[in-house]
Amino acid sequence: MTQIAAASFAEPRLVADDEGVRLLRAAITAEYAGRIAVVSSFGADSAMLLALVAEIDPATPVLFLETGMHFAETLAHRDALVARLGLTDVRDIRPDPVELAANDPDGELHRWIPDDCCAVRKVAPLARALAGFDAWATGRRRQQSRTRAALPFVETEAGRRKFNPLADWSAERILAELARRDLPRHPLVARGYPSIGCAPCTRAVRPGEDPRAGRWAGQAKTECGIHVPVAA
Ligand code: SF4
After folding, report:
1. Is the CB of residue 43 below 6 angstroms from any atom belonging to ligand 1?
2. Is the CB of 118 under 6 A from ligand 1?
3. Confidence (pLDDT) at 4
4. Between 228 and 31, whose confidence is greater?
5. Among residues 117, 198, 201, 224, which one is catalytic?
6. From its phi and psi, is residue 42 left (phi > 0), alpha (psi between -120 and 50) or beta?
7. Would the pLDDT of 9 be above 50?
């Protein structure tokens, strides 16, 4: 994607004694300096992790899985956040065109075999993109779903360290922090989407539903495959 010049703004500092943030800072600046990437969906809560990363080092590589199936609002939110936070190395990670043509020539695979669609549009591209890194960070939180209830701050997956600095953050804390920083929200949040993935596989949630109930609604599928569920 085209890089956008950093906007100038006075950043209210957050990084202090928070355990997850401390681990993220150490990973980016010391333990995995130059060898860690952040993976972001630029979804409902993504601004929080990205703000922390920008505060620590705005040149940290940020990988965005450009599946070709996103809401237009997500792409606009991505561009707005990149500009607002001054992130300088946001990379669009795309499916391999040959694999895509062979497996999903008409763009309808998500209707019939969503696991295969995620495999070609998300899992394989991310695996290729992460090949050059020894660690990565995500914005997943324990509160988001039952499959994430036991999420640790640090995991090891396929021999690579994986940091979840916001694992113990509540939705309320995220909201308060985003408001304090006056960071833009994803436009679909106000329309009932607390969790936002690809457009064909995301619907608004109803009152009382799990925040991720709108993802692959009506199917057994709960994750795209880039994250292995953590046993409670
Ligand atoms: S979320 Fe849906 S459209 Fe996106 S890659 Fe997975 S199955 Fe395909």
Report:
1. no
2. yes
3. 41
4. 31
5. 224
6. left
7. no
Residue with tokens 């992130």: 87
Question: Relative to the CA of 121, which ligand 1 atom is closest?
Answer: 5
| Residue 21 contacts residue 13 (beta carbons within 8 Å) | no
* Cβ contact 61:135 at 8 Å: no
- Would the CB of 38 count as within 6 Å of ligand 1? no
Place of tokens 């995620």: 118
Distances (CA, A) of 63 to 19, 38, 114, 178, 218: 24, 6, 22, 21, 29
Residue 201 designated active-site: no
Dist. CA 34–CA 135, nearest whole Å:
10
What is the Cα–Cα distance from 115 to 118, expressed in whole angstroms? 5
Q: How confident is the model at residue 142 (pLDDT cuts 50, 70, 90)?
A: very high
Query: Cα separation of 79 and 4, whole Å?
Result: 8
CB-based contact 29:58 (threshold 8 Å): no
Residue 162's alpha-carbon distances to 20, 32, 193, in angstroms, are: 12, 11, 26
Contact 85, 54 (CB under 8 A): yes
Structure tokens at 198: 């690809």
- Tens of pLDDT, residue by residue over 89-100, are 999 999 999 999
**Which residue has the CA at smallest separation from atom 4 of ligand 1?**
198
For the full predicted model, state whether its pTM sits above 0.85.
Answer: yes
